[in-house]
Amino acid sequence: MSDGIVDLSVASNVPATLTADVCVIGSGCGGATAAWELAKAGRQVIVLEEGGDFTGPQLTGRDGAMYDQLYMDRGGRATEDLAISVLQGRVLGGGGVINACDVVPIADPVLRHWQKRYGLSDFGPEALASYKARALEDLSANTPREDQVNANNAMLREGTRKLGWRGEVMMHNRVGCVGRGTCLLGCSYNAKKNPRFVAIPAAIASGARFYLRARAVRIDDASAEIKTVRVRRLDGKGYHEQGELTVRAKVVVLAANAVASAQLLLRSGIGNGHVGRHLSLQPQLPITALFERAIDSFRGIPQSWAVTEFEKIDEDDGFWGFRIEAIGGTPGITGSVLPELGPAGKEMMTRYPHIASSLLLVPDRDAGTVSVEKSGRLRIGYAMPDEQKARYRDAARAAARLYLAAGATQVIVPTAKPVFIRSEADLAAIDGLAFEPATTPFISAHQQGTVRFAPSPKDGAADPSGKVYGARDVYVFDSSGFPSTSSSHTMTPILTVSRYLSARLLAS
Amino acid sequence: MGRPGLKPGAGEDRKEAARFESACGGLPIGECALSSALDDVSSRIGREPAEGGLESGSGRGSWLARASARGGPILMARPISRRRVLQGTLGIAGVLAGSASGLVGLRGWAPAVAGLRCLSRFEYRTVALLATALFPEGGAFPLGASRFDLARRFDGWLADEPDEVKAELKSALLLFEYGPVIFQRRLETFSHLDADARLAHFESWARSDTLVRRKVALGLRKFLSLVFYDQPEVWPSIGYGGPT
């Protein structure tokens, strides 16, 4: 372990009680950025991270080991009906380590939507402009070169152009990418300019200390000047709890993702009735297409082309409509999504290099909840409204048309009763998709809401400075506070808002 | 593997019966066809068993690989006669009328498996046979699940999960094993079905109208698929060069 990073699974000389000015829970985009800003301003900062530190060759690109080690609940987190797989990082650097590197800032109309509909007058585009610019700088945001748009993305782009629809190459935060293609399992070339390589070293240089395999399970004395965060030490794999310690701090900053931040507040009995409500999962539906030519979607940048024709961004509804983005998957995750099994499934996987894939991203609103049982067990509830299901059907039809236009021989909607589309005449089969729970491999990578910012406790769980109502100096600096979906990709919005709220905290 | 495992003791039976009742407790009453299964018992008496005698586990290679290659059930310890089937069926019918513990007899025997951390031999058998149904040897490429002992990997994974997850998944495996009895009014548990019927049984769960069955199918399938296609030995067959 380097200076400033302490792995509690092996460290033997850690006191039973640690003290700091600020205890940050979570080391991802929100937590690492807050730690950096607060430490730079001279505050003593301790950051708690449940995961381990994985860089370079430790990121093996193997599905089994990496989902086990880099994702919350070993990759198995899901809504209680198993309808949606909830992907959330559990590693030093958080979701930035295992995301697809897409840099999509909060659009100004979305911020105006937050002002207009949710009363967040402090979140105007003007107030956040410099923080947005700083986030792009931290990420070394750049646009992939033409030769970095791999065949999987190029197929989708070709369909987009043939149909005359709008689309774009998304910005990303890779520098020195060699196209390994395993971004969702981390980058062994350390080419992602994520918090692990930007905010965390900077925070450590300013004196912050990061504790790994540290599971925060409760915050006590939330109304007192000094809060006590109860922490369980985990073993080296993060499977089992093996001891306890406490952190005493004046300020607690929650940045553990919209699920885990709400979970910790609920376990601690902190906050009002809005805590855990208003969860947005922004579920994404995979869709695949077969081509005669080899696509090799598993090589190169997995996600660079987005079809934006059907997305709607305005101050009335924020981010709405739907969006289609290419995606490449490693064999394990691809095999678990394709609908066929047995001999037919094996036959399908022999065509793996010829399979193009994309995700249908449909923004949602208030459809989910986070709750905690008496035993402490997490429950993620989600009831998908009919209107949202209709948008998935629209998106599936659009994606099928795109792939057919690009020359696909077959498009597959991988539901339990899969839909196979070989021509536009088959599109009507999509009309019958009901998306009943556990029939469709929905995934969520952009959880938001649950501790919603609002100017009044009757409308949300935290005030516009991020301070949790009903507690003293307990804050949320992550996507938990977003009153509606911020963007198609939350990395940049979280970086932006965390730095903004950190500045406000220091100013106060 | 040498001789198959011994018949489980009464304590193990009681625990399984309790888990079974618990697992069934989450089902809509209309879905549970225990009484219908009981009604079917008499009509099935006298029917020849679908499979003939089964060898014990002597010989080379794992019992799973041999059974998978043969495509037949692998759970009985020795050849069974029609007379024994009749006796057993009548016995089961009697016990079924009394309690869920009667269903335990339908599972037959399973070979002992050394070194399991979490699964019972019966749970291991369910997962192993499901894995070979989902990823059989032969077909588009020779390798199948039996090569990688996916059930042991499942056991290793589950052993490090929290207790409530272990309990839920063990209940799920029990429910899945007895699925043909409960939902299809058969007198055979999953492990007694032939290879094609095992796949069909799984697919019927994946496409079921009942959420609990879809959840069980989805959860098992995701794990097994992810681990199977994560094996470097499989990659050349699917055109993947690995994470270079």
Main sheet properties of chain B: none
What is the percentage of strand-forming residues of chain A? 15-25%
Spans of chain A of at least 5 consecutive residues whose pLDDT stays below 50 are none
Instruction: Examine the coordinates and then state which fold CATH places here, giving the name of the CATH topology of chain A.
Output: FAD/NAD(P)-binding domain
Strand content of chain B: under 5%
Total helical elements of chain B: 11
Main sheet record of chain A: 8 strands, mixed
Oligomeric status = heterodimer
What is the total number of structural domains of chain A? 1
Can you count the beta strands of chain B?
A: 0
* Main CATH class of chain A: Alpha Beta
Give the helix level of chain B as a range of percent. 40-55%
Number of helices of chain A: 12
Helix content of chain A: 25-40%
Task: Tell me what you see in this structure.
The complex is a heterodimer of chains A (508) and B (244). Chain A has helices at residues 29-40, 63-70, 95-98, 108-118, 125-138, 151-163, 199-205, 257-268, 331-337, 342-349, 386-405, 491-507, and strands at residues 5-7, 17-25, 45-48, 84-86, 102-103, 167-169, 171-172, 209-212, 214-220, 227-234, 241-254, 277-280, 284-290, 305-307, 311-314, 318-321, 323-326, 355-361, 368-372, 378-382, 410-413, 419-421, 442-444, 448-450, 474-476. With 508 residues, chain A is of the alpha/beta class. Chain A has a single domain (5-507), classed as FAD/NAD(P)-binding domain. In chain A, the strands form 7 sheets. In chain A, strands 1, 2, 3, 8, 9, 10, 11 and 25 form an 8-stranded mixed beta sheet that branches. A 7-stranded antiparallel beta sheet of chain A has the order 6-14-17-18-13-21-22, with helices on one face. Chain A has a two-stranded parallel sheet with strand order 4-23. In chain A, a hairpin with a 6-residue loop joins strand 9 (214-220) and strand 10. The longest helix of chain A is centred in the C-terminal third of the chain and has 20 residues, at 386-405. The model of chain A has no long low-confidence stretch (mean pLDDT 97). Chain B is mostly helical and 244 residues long. Chain B has one domain. Chain B has 11 helices and no strands. In chain B, helix 9 crosses helix 10 (211-228). Chain B starts with 9 loop residues before the first helix and ends in a 6-residue tail after the last helix. The relative contact order of chain B is 0.15. Classes of the chains: A alpha/beta (508), B mainly alpha (244). The interface between A and B is large, with 45 and 42 residues.
